[in-house]
Amino acid sequence: MSLRTAQLARLREDAFDVLIIGGGINGAVSAAALAGQGVRVALLERGDFAGGTSSQSSNLVWGGIKYLESRDFGLVRRLCRSRNRLLDAYPTRIEEIRFLATLRRGFRYPRGFMWAGTWLYWLFGNAYTRPPRLLSRADIAAAEPCVALDDSGGGFEYSDAFLPGSDARFVFDFVRAALDAGAAAANYVEALHAEHGADGWVCRARDVDGDGAPFDIRARVLINAAGPYADAFNTQTSTRTTHRHVFSKGVHLIVDRITAQRRVLAFFASDGRLFFAIPMGSRTCIGTTDTRVERPEVTVTDADRDFILDNINRQLRLERPLTRADIVAERCGVRPLVVDGQGGDERDWLALSREHAVEVDPRAAHLTIFGGKLTDCLNIGEEVTARIAALGVAVPQRGARWYGEADTPQREAFMHQAQAIKLEASAAPGATEPAGARLWRRYGARAFSLLDAIRDDPAQAEELIPGAQYLRCELALAARDDMVVRLDDWLRRRTLIALTTHADELRAAPGVQEACRVLFGDEAERRFAEFVQEKFPSGH
Ligand SMILES: Cc1cc2nc3c(=O)[nH]c(=O)nc-3n(C[C@H](O)[C@H](O)[C@H](O)COP(=O)(O)OP(=O)(O)OC[C@H]3O[C@@H](n4cnc5c(N)ncnc54)[C@H](O)[C@@H]3O)c2cc1C
C-alpha cells in the first residue's frame, strides 16, 4: 500500500484531536509541532504540499532589513531572532549568506545613514552573523565585476540567511516530520466544508486525485491554515474573525547564473524597493515584484517580466542584456498579508501587513492562522501548540523537540561513509556543491540508505538529468517517503529541477521517463502525459 493510500484510510477511519486545513508552511509547521508533542493530528492539502504561496518565496530566512525603513523595529527584532533559531536548528538546510548592496548616487538616504542601519540590523540580530562591511566602488568592482557602477557611490555588505535548496522541500520536511511522529496527512485532499457540533468538528473532504467522492473527517479542533484562502474557508464554516487578508503579488524570474560567488546581489529597484539576485543551484533567481491584487489567483504578465528584466539590466553590466528568452523558469504567488478589522488602507498596508496573527474562537474550538513567513515558522508552531493546549487538548509530550536536523556526530559519520565510497569522484561537471553535503542537506539521517544503495549498485550515484544535481538513488527514496502524486510534485516541490531546467529539456530528458517509472510504476505514462498537458497546453 502506498504512503498516501494508507494516509487516506487513516483520515477516513481515525478521530483526531486537531484537523489542519492547508499544507503550506503554516499548516505543515503546525502539524509537525503538534504531532511532535503527542497530539493526534490530521493535515489536508487540496493541491500538493507547499503548492500555494510557500513554493513561491524568495528563499530568504531573514530579519526583514527593509522593515527598518518603516520603523517596525519589533518585527525586525523578532524576525532576526527567528532567523537565528533556524540557523541554529538547520545548520545545513539554512545558510548564512552575504548580501552585497549597491547604492546609486542621489538615493533617498545617504550612504552613511544606510551603513548605520546595517549595524542596527546586526545588533537586532544579537550580532549572530558576520558584521557588516562598508564597500567603496573599487571594493564592489573587485568582488562583483558584473555590477554596474556608473552612478554608484559604493555600497555595503551584510549577512542574512537563505534556503540553498527548495522552499517547498523545506515545508515538506515539516510534513514528513509530522508523519514520522504519527500524524495523518495527505495531499490532493480538499476540505469542502466543516461543521461544529456537540461532538466536535466534522469536515467533509474529497480526494481530488481519486474518485472525488466525499468523506468525513472528525476532530475536536479545526485549524484553518489555508493561507490566501483562509478567509474563503472561514466563510464556508461561518467563522467570523477580526483579522482578514489582503494580497500582494510577487514574481521571480530564474536565469543562468549571474555570478559565480555564493552571495546575494541587492539593489533598489525603480519603484524604490529592495530587489535581489539570489543563488539557486546552478541558476540565479531575480525578484521580486510587490503589486497589490484583489484575488489570490495570479499569473506572470509581460509587464512583470519587463519590470524585473529592466531593473536587473540597469544594475548589471552583462555581456548582453537579459531578455525574455533567457528565462529558465518563473515563480509567482501572493503574500497573504494580515490586516485587522476592516483595515487594508495605506496605514495597515505598511504597518501591519508583515506580521502574523493566530485568531482563536474558543467556543467553536477553531483557530485561523493569518499571514506569516517561512522565517517565522518555529514561532508559529509554538504559538499554535500553546493555543491548542489552552483549548483543553492534551499535549502529552509538551516541550519535546519537534524540529531541527540530526546532530553533528551523525552528519560526520555520514560524510565519512560518503568519502569511503568515493561519492565525490562521481560528481557531475558544474555541480555547485559536493554530492555528500547535498544529500545530507536534503534528507538528513535518511540519506544513509542512499549510500547503501550506491554500495550495492554504483550506477545509483549517477546524475539522473544532466545539470539537475540529482542522483538516481534519490528516486527510490522519493517514491517511498515523499508522497509524490504527480510528476510536477517531484520536479517542482520535492526538488529544484523544474526551476533550474527548461520545461522543454525536461520533456525530452530520458531521466524524467526513468523517474516516472520509479515514482509511478504502471501509471508512469499517464503521469507523464498529465505533466506535458499541464506545461504545454497548446501542444508546443
Ligand atoms: C513573492 C514572495 C516572496 C516571499 N519571500 C519570502 C521569503 O523570502 N522569506 C519568508 O520568510 N517568507 C517569504 N514570503 C512569505 C511566505 O512565502 C508566505 O507568507 C507563506 O508561504 C504563506 O504560507 P501559508 O501556509 O500561510 O500559505 P500557503 O503556502 O499558500 O498554504 C496554504 C495552503 O492551503 C491550501 N488550501 C486552501 N484551501 C484549502 C482547502 N479547502 N482544503 C485543503 N487545502 C486548502 C492551499 O492549496 C495552500 O497550499 C514570500 C511570499 C511571496 C509571495
TrEMBL record:
Keyword Cytoplasm belongs to the record: no
Cofactor(s) of this protein: FAD
Keyword Flavoprotein appears in the UniProt entry: yes
Domain Alpha-glycerophosphate oxidase C-terminal per the UniProt entry, residue ranges: 421-520
Domain FAD dependent oxidoreductase: 17-341
InterPro entries noted in UniProt: DAO_C, DAO_C_sf, FAD-dep_OxRdtase, FAD/NAD-bd_sf, G3P_DH_FAD-dep
Pfam families named among the record's database cross-references: DAO, DAO_C
UniProtKB keywords: FAD, Flavoprotein, Oxidoreductase
Record field: transmembrane: none
Gene Ontology molecular-function annotations: glycerol-3-phosphate dehydrogenase (quinone) activity
Single GO biological process annotation from the record: glycerol-3-phosphate catabolic process
Family: Belongs to the FAD-dependent glycerol-3-phosphate dehydrogenase family.
Protein name: FAD-dependent oxidoreductase
